[in-house]
């Protein structure tokens, strides 16, 4: 029997940067990936795919509250639905692939897939997403999900789905980081999160560091890959909300996905921050599709 991948295509909770004027658009990311041909590509690779549709959220423009923590309740409600959908997918012996949306969706995804299984997370991102309301200079909830999953921050996020942290520090590896706020930098170091920066990748090469990162997560039951498309250099992936120059190249991104696929043990995946409004001819969605194809086993030979 072919492995079954239940594909959960969810909209992002309605968060944005209050200090930067930009259009919304990450809620259109799942549609862009569908349009790029995600289901047909996974089917071509030999997987049985079930598209369970969108996790609906309120439209951001309908909210009267201030951004950031003012959007906390809608984010919690959306992530609770994502938590349950992800938990059920794992219970059905499927591999949930959750499409965002911004990275706050991972509070639901990782929480749900870790409900019954110790889960390790390879968090591939330009940013640490390890802020709390006290450390964040902007209050953006999409800058807080990994901290919340490790037990730091707003109680509503930390206790979402079930009480307390969903991850232990030794179960997390940050990869491709190049833009950290000072407060989250200190919190990451204090927590002891293994972190591979772009400087380290430049100096030592991607392949050996990817092997190290995966080895650090060999002790868990399931591996969750959380791919933020802003981990890729914006020259390759312009359609993201928070660009940071100096990211992974096209080839480095594919090599990383190929190495993860060869390592095996993938239990769940989310891909976030595809923003068609900021994109060029759906370039970022097409790249995300290619990376996911490599992650799920496409090979040159």
Q: Roughly how many Å is the radius of gyration?
A: 17 Å
Low-confidence segments, ≥5 residues, pLDDT <50? 1-23
The CATH topology is what?
Answer: Arginase, Chain A
When the domains are counted, the total is: 1
Oligomer: single chain
Q: What is the first-to-last residue Cα distance?
A: 23 Å
Structural class: alpha/beta
Explain this structure to me?
The two termini are 23 Å apart. Strands 2-1-3-8-7-4-5-6 form an 8-stranded parallel beta sheet, sandwiched between helices. It has a single domain (4-295), classed as Ureohydrolase domain (Arginase, Chain A). 36% of the residues lie in helices and 14% in strands. The protein has 11 helices and 8 strands. It is α/β, with parallel strands linked by helices. Helix 3 (72-91) runs parallel beside helix 4 (106-113), helix 9 (206-216) runs parallel beside helix 10 and helix 10 packs parallel to helix 11 (283-295).
């Amino acid at each position: 029997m072919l492995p079954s991948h239940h594909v959960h295509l969810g909209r992002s909770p309605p968060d944005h940067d209050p200090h930067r004027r930009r259009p919304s658009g990450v809620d259109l990311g799942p549609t862009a990936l569908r349009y790029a041909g995600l289901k047909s590509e996974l089917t071509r690779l030999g997987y049985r795919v079930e598209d369970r549709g969108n996790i609906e959220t309120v439209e951001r423009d309908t909210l009267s509250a201030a951004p950031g923590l003012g959007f906390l309740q809608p984010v919690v409600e959306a992530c609770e639905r994502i938590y349950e959908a992800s938990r059920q997918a794992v219970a059905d012996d499927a591999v949930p692939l959750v499409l965002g949306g911004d990275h706050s969706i991972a509070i639901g995804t990782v929480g749900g897939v870790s409900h019954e299984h110790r889960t390790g997370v390879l968090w591939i991102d330009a940013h640490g997403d390890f802020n709390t309301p006290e450390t964040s200079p902007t209050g953006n909830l999409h800058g807080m999900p990994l901290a919340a999953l490790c037990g730091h921050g707003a109680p509503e996020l930390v206790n979402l789905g079930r009480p307390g942290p969903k991850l232990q520090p030794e179960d997390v590896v940050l990869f491709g980081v190049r833009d950290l706020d000072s407060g989250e930098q200190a919190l990451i170091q204090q927590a002891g999160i293994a972190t591979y920066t772009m400087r380290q990748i430049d100096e030592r090469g991607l392949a050996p560091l990817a092997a190290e990162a995966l080895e650090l997560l060999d002790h868990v039951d399931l591996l969750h890959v959380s791919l933020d498309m802003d981990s890729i250099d914006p020259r390759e992936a312009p359609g993201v909300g928070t660009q940071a120059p100096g990211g992974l190249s096209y080839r480095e991104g594919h090599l990383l996905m190929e190495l993860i696929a060869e390592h095996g043990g993938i239990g769940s995946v989310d891909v976030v921050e595809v923003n068609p409004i900021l994109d060029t001819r759906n370039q970022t969605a097409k790249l995300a599709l290619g990376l996911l194809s490599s992650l799920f086993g496409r090979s040159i030979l």
